[in-house]
Design goal:
Blueprint (H helix, E strand, L loop, with lengths): L2 H4 L9 E5 L6 H11 L3 E3 L3 E2 L14 E2 L2 H9 L3 E7 L2 E6 H9 L3 E5 L2 H10 L4 E6 L3 H10 L5 H15 L7 E4 L3 H16 L2 H7 L1 H6 L5
Parallel strand pairs: 1-7, 1-8, 2-7, 3-4, 8-9
Antiparallel strand pairs: 3-6, 5-6
The structure holds guanosine-5'-monophosphate.
């Protein structure tokens, strides 16, 4: 078998990104700033069984649901991935992601390491990004300052952070969020380079590649 026979052509030119981090690494703020700067990236809204925080709106941050309803969705195969994080279920809707992806959008999943590994199994071309806080001390400070969760929850999350961080080495990219603007630029650079991969460019610029006789 020659190389061109072995290489599966890309069906589409858009990309799938997963972004993971321990709670308190600043992931959500970074993603919010990225999406503001580049509205062509679509963020998947997960489903969770955890209770909404005071400033959260159903259907905006998450689709909030019950454990029974979540389990029924698992049984129906409605999740692309799901996991138990900090004692609650979280999952990504298969239909919603595929809908965005098939419409030609880049899709970003803000999920934990367990979910990121599941997504990479299904779609090996997924670009996985891990965000690290600059130090454990800074992480604890950020989690305590958040002020929306109980002390128990904070302690539980600090313990969970160590587990999450222990999986950083499984990711394609690591950003250390010490300086927000720098971290945001680095996140943008990863997105940009994923879009410029030869096979993505070929899919997006089919006519130009054909004109130049470039075969992938
Ligand atoms: P939080 O409850 O603080 O918003 O999120 C807790 C953790 O759950 C974070 O690490 C977040 O990335 C993760 N998470 C959110 N949505 C999903 C999801 O759909 N799947 C998985 N596996 N993790 C998720």
């Amino acid at each position: 078998m020659n190389k061109s026979q072995m290489t599966r052509p890309e069906p589409v030119g858009n990309s799938l990104f997963t972004v993971s981090a321990p709670s308190g690494a600043g992931k959500s703020s970074l993603i919010a700033a990225l999406l503001k700067a580049d509205p062509t990236i679509k963020l998947s809204i997960s489903t969770t069984t955890r209770n909404p925080r005071p400033d959260e709106v159903d259907g905006r941050e998450y689709h909030f649901t019950t454990v029974d309803a979540f389990k029924a969705s698992i049984d129906k195969g409605e999740f692309m991935e799901y996991a138990i994080v900090h004692g609650n279920y979280y999952g990504t809707s298969k239909a919603k992601v595929l809908e965005q992806h098939d419409a030609g959008n880049d899709v970003m999943l803000e999920i934990d390491w367990q979910g990121a590994l599941q997504i990479r199994e299904i779609y090996p071309e997924t670009v996985s990004i891990f965000i690290l806080p600059p130090s454990i001390g800074e992480l604890e400070k950020r989690l305590t300052k958040r002020g929306q969760d109980s002390i128990e929850t904070i302690k539980y999350r600090i313990a969970g952070a160590a587990l999450e961080i222990s999986h950083a080495s499984d990711f394609d990219y690591v950003i250390i969020n010490n300086d927000f603007d720098l971290a945001l630029r680095q996140l943008g650079a990863i997105i940009e380079s994923a879009r410029l991969r030869t096979r993505k460019q070929a899919a997006k610029n089919h006519a130009l590649f054909a004109e130049f006789g470039i075969t992938i």
